[in-house]
Amino acid sequence: MRFADLHLHTNASDGTYTPEEVVLKSKYAGLSAISIVDHDTVDALDSALEVAKESEIEIIPGIELSAACDGKEIHILGYLIDHRNQDLTEKIKILKNNRIDRVHKITEKLKDLGVNLKPQTVFDIAGNGIISRLHIARALVQEKAVATTGEAFQRYIGDSSPAYVLGFKMKPEETISLIKNAGGIPVLAHPYSLHSDALTLKLIEFGIMGLEVYYPEHSQGMINFYLDLAKKYNLLATGGSDCHGAAKPEVRIGSIKIPYTLIEELKKAKETLL
Residue 255's closest CA among 29, 55, 59, 62? Predict the structure, then answer.
């Protein structure tokens, strides 16, 4: 039986592994297929696709896009996208600038809370990668403002924490349309994080085609709930580890494995968009 991990990040966004390392570690983990879904960027895909030729690992081209709805941050995965689609690449440039602005806003809020974190410290950690809150969390650890990245989210930059800034201007319906227009399948990432079944149902109305059912922080009860929801609304089920390398060392590539049959379902769904 073949298995896949459809939620992996590289150093093109907020992971620490290079695309090449992700592919090789995935093969070592016994996976047949993976999807690199970096935040608001596709920069890792060409390198990963090239290395995969020698490693006999199938790459499902993907992305994880951020949107906002009802004051909440929503992550939407796009699978089997044309990562060279012009509309997508142009939108990515705008999203990159939004993320840079967000760092400045968050560090200002942190300053008001008595935590002096320079934006440049965050930019240095991010390097050439797309900046995320995980980079801010790592900077806070580096500056000894907190002991762990988890503490950084809990105390300062988590969704309900005092230095949180939403920062994203795309609506989920725009994000869903962008993914579909790039030939991809839009899937709601880690739906538990919304803490709102009503919002999940709203996203289904907007055209989400799948739910990330299998996820490290989903209990068996949650998995069963989202499987039932997917069945009720004729949605696809996906899953993955959300591995970020050393940035989240407790989450390893392949720690969540899904059967390859779910990828076959993704491919069938893509045919309906053509």
Answer: 29
* pLDDT tens-digit series, residues 225-269: 999 999 999 999 999 999 999 988 899 999 999 999 999 999 999
Residue for token digits 């081209």? 61
- Give me the CATH topology for the region 92-157: DNA polymerase; domain 1 (1.10.150)
Alpha carbons 89 and 5: distance in angstroms, whole number: 25
Amino acid at 12: A
Strand partners, 59: 34
Both structure tokens of 79: 């699978």
3-state secondary structure of 66: strand
pTM given for the model = 0.92
In CATH terms, the fold of domain 3-85+172-271 is TIM Barrel (3.20.20)
How confident is the model over 165-215, as pLDDT tens digits? 988 779 999 999 999 999 999 999 999 999 999 999 999 999 999 999 999
Which residues are paired to 66 by β-bridges? 75
Annotated domain spans of the chain: 3-85+172-271, 92-157
Edge-to-edge strand order for the sheet containing 236-239?
62-69, 72-79, 185-188, 210-214, 236-239
